[in-house]
Design a protein that fits this description.
The structure holds 2 protein chains of 2 kinds. By secondary structure, chain A is an alpha/beta fold. Chain A has 2 domains: 221 residues, HUPs (Rossmann fold, 3-Layer(aba) Sandwich), CATH 3.40.50.620; 45 residues, no CATH class. Chain A has 7 helices and 15 strands. Chain A has a 9-stranded mixed beta sheet with strand order 11-10-9-12-8-1-6-7-13, sandwiched between helices. A two-stranded antiparallel sheet of chain A has the order 2-5. Chain A is globular, with a radius of gyration of 24 Å. By secondary structure, chain B is α/β, with parallel strands linked by helices. Chain B folds into 2 domains: 191 residues, Rossmann fold, CATH 3.40.50.620; 131 residues, Rossmann fold. Chain B has a 7-stranded parallel beta sheet with strand order 7-11-6-1-4-5-12, sandwiched between helices. Classes of the chains: A alpha/beta, B alpha/beta. Chains A and B meet through strand 3, helix 3, helix 4, strand 9 and strand 10 of A and helix 4, helix 5, strand 7, strand 9 and strand 10 of B.
């Protein structure tokens, strides 16, 4: 069995700051991490491999420094890692990204055998689009299973898989045939602690690096900025409300006084809130 | 694994030509604003009606028609749903009624949607950013080889008749406006509750266009075996709560987060949290408020120890009254709160909860008295 897991190296968004004056992103010193949602995909792939046998290939598209994240994936237990890196991919939107990743997955299939499953996280924390997984599935004609919470049954020989996926207002149980693309839901599993042996071999492992040409992607007009139908016209910080927040005074005030002031401010601005609360209290 | 999808429209020029303002001739045929109507278990998802409201404004600005695309199993329920679309603002409903569309599955819905788009060529196609809408939108946009903007928070038409779709970017710290230049339709998803619900106009009528599908169940390998609805008691009713109290990293520990729950309980509201709390596991994903969580429109929103990054702001700024408690006077939340207090939420919350409790206790009628 062969599984491909797509991961993305992202800036740790919890640590991104915007410059208060220039409204630009301050990237310096922001650490890079594996997109947290992708770890659920990686863990699910590793579990399936441990049960059924086979290999897990991790794939990432990004700058050369994304090698760090691939090495980390190897330390968790992935078998090989491919970095798709080429300046022709710079500025890709989701459509151009899926073009490149689908090309690389085809090449991975030619090199190490067709994948039975492709995993991605449900979305990234920097783009938040959730569009890349479905895009890859469509381009490779894989059966698409998004927001999967659990793989309920898996039979490699019969090429059969049943999953529980998060749907609106409930859980949908879907049965389909391999090959599939699965986007894994958060909290569906917990990433393992890599073994010491894996950590040591990951540090020495060779990360396969492919340019567009290496991956057999010849039509560069579908890549990067050129291949992206969407264009960012403007980036801006939202304006503050014209009316400044009414500030509750705090100097020389006790906690009780402050609490009273807050409640007074709420009720005087929105008397209906007080009415509603009183009605509710009386209703009990 | 074969390549390139079917039904793709001719490719527009790419490269530098893609930046030209004039739309290529074959794309000028794309007209009208469409909303995908999410219809499941006999009901239209509220987000689709919200989008009809927003789509109406875009269509009026462009002086074109607003259409809903409704898919499902044939029957009276589906026809009733199309009548609802007219009453919520649609001029046209494209109806695709076929047993293969009984339950949502990616493959038949993607094929049906791309077929209808390629037949009638809309310039704008909006979908709800639900699990269903996102599953479908990504496939449809890739099949059509057009641009798709996810989770937009504002939609407008610019001077060149093109859709300006605004969404948070860089992990929610800034906003950006995205255009789809030489590709049609221009696609965007919008989260539930981001756009206001339009008024129903009883008796309003429109034109029904039926699109027959020539597909059979055997064409599809994916089968829906079962649907297990969530039990209502498990579901957080955040999106529709009148009062919401939420906490952020400023609370410093999961123990302190209990103070948020306690205040919400006294006020008879719901509790929630910012994204980092969901990532830390202090709250479940269905209680996360903001761009990637729930959008809320309560009468009263109290944010404790939340800095108010754009990511969070877009999820709450339609609240009637926003009260922010934060020890950092420069926290961005004070830019959009109505009432602010620069104080440590961990200290203030229990006092505030007790003060509210005492105020309301005056009106509390014991059950035995109420019954007499």
């Amino acid at each position: 069995m062969h599984i491909v897991v797509c991961i993305k190296q992202v800036p740790d968004s919890a640590q991104i700051r915007v410059h208060p004056v220039t409204n630009t992103i301050m990237r310096q010193g922001v650490p890079s991490i594996i997109n947290p949602y992708d770890l659920f995909a990686l863990e699910e792939a590793l579990r399936l491999r441990d049960k059924v046998g086979g290999k897990v290939t991790v794939l990432s598209m990004g700058p050369p420094m994304a090698e760090d994240s691939l090495r980390k994936a190897l330390a968790y237990g992935a078998d090989r890692a491919v970095l798709l890196t080429d300046r022709h991919f710079a500025g890709s939107d989701t459509l151009a990204t899926t073009y490149a990743l689908a090309g690389a997955i085809r090449k991975i299939g030619e090199t190490w055998g067709l994948p039975n499953l492709v995993f991605t996280g449900k979305q990234t924390i920097d783009g938040d689009t959730a569009q890349v997984g479905p895009g890859i599935a469509k381009r490779l004609n894989l059966n698409q299973l998004t927001y999967v919470a659990r793989i309920a049954s898996f039979d490699l020989k019969a090429r059969a898989i049943t999953v529980e996926r998060r749907a609106e207002g409930g859980v949908q149980v879907l049965a389909t045939r391999l090959p599939v693309l699965i986007t894994m839901l958060e909290d569906s599993n917990e990433i393992r602690r890599g073994t010491m042996a894996n950590a040591l071999s990951a540090a020495r492992a060779e990360i396969v690096k492919w340019s567009a040409e290496d991956a057999g992607i010849s039509d560069l007009s579908h890549c990067g900025l050129r291949g992206s139908p969407t264009v960012v016209k403007k980036v801006f910080a939202p304006p503050a409300r014209a009316e400044k927040a009414h500030q509750i005074p705090v100097t020389d005030r006790t906690w009780d006084e402050m609490a009273g002031d807050v409640i007074q401010a709420i009720f005087s601005r929105r008397p209906s809130i007080e009415t509603d609360l009183i009605q509710r209290a009386e209703g009990f | 694994m074969s390549s390139t999808p079917q039904l793709a429209p001719p490719r527009p020029p790419s490269g530098r030509a893609a930046m030209k303002k004039e739309l290529p001739e074959h794309l000028k045929a794309y007209r009208h604003v469409w909303v995908f109507i999410e219809y499941e278990h006999g009901q239209i998802h509220p987000v689709s009606l919200e989008l009809l409201g927003e789509g109406r404004k875009l269509a009026d600005k462009l002086k074109v028609e607003l259409a809903g695309v409704l898919m499902g199993t044939p029957g009276d329920d589906l026809l009733r749903a199309s009548a609802d679309c007219f009453e919520f603002g649609a001029d046209v409903v494209y109806l695709v009624a076929d047993p293969v569309l009984a339950h949502y599955r990616n493959e038949p819905f993607t094929r049906a949607m791309t077929e209808v788009v390629n037949t009638w060529k809309p310039e704008i196609l909006l979908l709800g950013a639900t699990t269903l809408g996102r599953d479908l939108a990504g496939s449809v946009a890739t099949t059509l080889l057009t641009g798709l903007t996810a989770d937009t928070t504002a939609l407008a038409i610019d001077d060149e008749r093109s859709l300006a779709a605004t969404r948070p970017t860089f992990g929610g710290s800034l906003l950006c406006t995205i255009h789809t230049l030489n590709y049609r339709p221009q696609m965007a998803t919008v989260r539930p509750r981001v756009m206001p619900m339009p008024e129903r106009q009883p008796g309003r009528l429109g034109r029904l266009v039926e699109h027959p599908l020539h597909m059979a169940e055997d064409d599809f390998v994916t089968k829906v075996l079962q649907f297990m609805p969530d039990r209502d008691s498990q579901k957080a009713q955040l999106a529709f709560a009148d009062i919401v109290v939420a906490g952020g990293l400023g609370l410093k520990s999961i123990e302190n987060f209990q103070l948020v729950k306690r205040l919400a309980e006294v006020l008879g509201g719901e509790y929630g949290g910012s994204r980092p709390l969901a990532q830390k596991g202090w709250i479940t994903a269905d209680r996360q408020i903001g761009q990637t969580g729930k959008t809320i429109r309560p009468k009263l929103y109290i944010a404790a120890g939340i800095s108010g990054a754009i990511q969070h702001r877009v999820g709450v700024e339609d609240a009637d009254l926003i009260v922010a408690i934060n020890s950092d006077p420069n926290a961005p939340i004070f830019d959009f709160a109505h009432i602010g207090i620069v104080a440590d939420a961990v200290e203030l919350l229990p006092v505030l909860t007790e003060a509210f409790r005492q105020r309301l206790a005056l009106h509390y009628v014991p059950a035995s008295c109420a019954a007499s």
